[in-house]
Amino acid sequence: MLRLFLLTGIVAFAVARGPASAAGLPEGEGRDVVEAICTACHGTNQIMRSSGYTADDWRELIGTMIDLSGGPEEQRQIVGYLATHFPPNERRTATLVPGDVEIAFTEWVVPTLGQRARDPVEASDGSIWWVGQWGNLVGRIDPETGAMTEYPLPGEARPHSVTLDGVGNAWYTGNGDGTIGKLDAATGEITVYPMPDPAARDPHTAEFDHDGILWFTLQQSNMIGRLDPATGNVKLVSPKTPGARPYGIKIDSDGVPWVACNGSNCLLRVDPATMEVTEIELPLPDSTVRRLDIAEDGMIWYVNSRKGRLGRYDPGTGKIDEWPSPSGPDSHPYAIAVVDGIVWYNESGVRPDALVRFDPRDETFQSWAVPSGNVHAGIVRHMRRTADGDLLIHQSSTNRIIRVSLPDVLN
User: Fold this and answer.
1) Are residues 148 and 43 in the same domain?
2) What's the whole-number mean pLDDT along residues 351-356?
3) Residues 122, 251: one domain?
4) What is the annotated signal peptide range for this record (predicted)?
5) What is the Cα–Cα distance from 205 to 261, expressed in whole angstroms?
6) How far is the C-alpha of 184 from the C-alpha of 307, rounded, in Å?
């Protein structure tokens, strides 16, 4: 009865939203049910841009989003409609590059359906924290036992990312309500820090510097923020370009924040003392950058998402190099991490979502399909290294947190 009640509530919510979000679906039995249920959480463009699935695979994918066991007729109609009108296709096929490097994936499927699990980060005790953006929660995995705990967040935080301070507290970005939050790892108590400016609507990604100051981006608000946990004081600054859309952020060895521009062809350097923002223009005018990372030698590696390229900026000389990604200009590279001199990133615009390895020594690529159960529907939106040199990634569409075991070291 509870499951049927939940399903009924979702249908009512979707109907209240109106038909606009369902535009474009072909006619056929089950269309109305798909419109009512699927668009309660996402637009139909997510369906129409998919790589398509068999009936069994659609059933599996839907099962990561919503429990339809209380409505078998609705499930039959949805699966039948999707399998008929959106069968497997090759419109977004990845170009996977073979090679000699071997890696291994370890997956955890998080408890709450449809939460869009993302942005895992490792704590000093080896536990893994993540956020469920649509589930409005922060989660923790014990990799040794597989035990998971989910902490519901206040209000409509809709956390976009999570990072950890020096004592293991989890700090999340309240992308939905304009807040930064701290979850005490020992007590579960949550402290909320609202933005001082109502125009600062959407904290996005955050990183701590060596002094324990939290730096964060606000993409749609076009701002970069600085929060001092000792005082709770928040300062905000905007780049010169109105539509720069600050996105990914990293801190270099000198404590300088570097920020990716998801709305313009630039990287941003922030003076940690004055918060003055310097813009570095990228050579291709239509470039946009989701994320960046900083190698041990100080090189800034970034993904040119709009152009389907991998880039490197040398802060010492100003030299910029870019390489086409294996799956081409529509591959939309997204997350990126540099581990022991090797660059890792994913191609989110193709299916399967490809994990790509780039070796700067000989400028060679190798890539793998990122597992996501038996379907390729997830997207890696952030990746970070572990203490022992592995990668933490995720598949947001299928609620999976993944550890990638990496064998190689650049000498």
Assistant:
1) no
2) 96
3) yes
4) 1-22
5) 12
6) 41
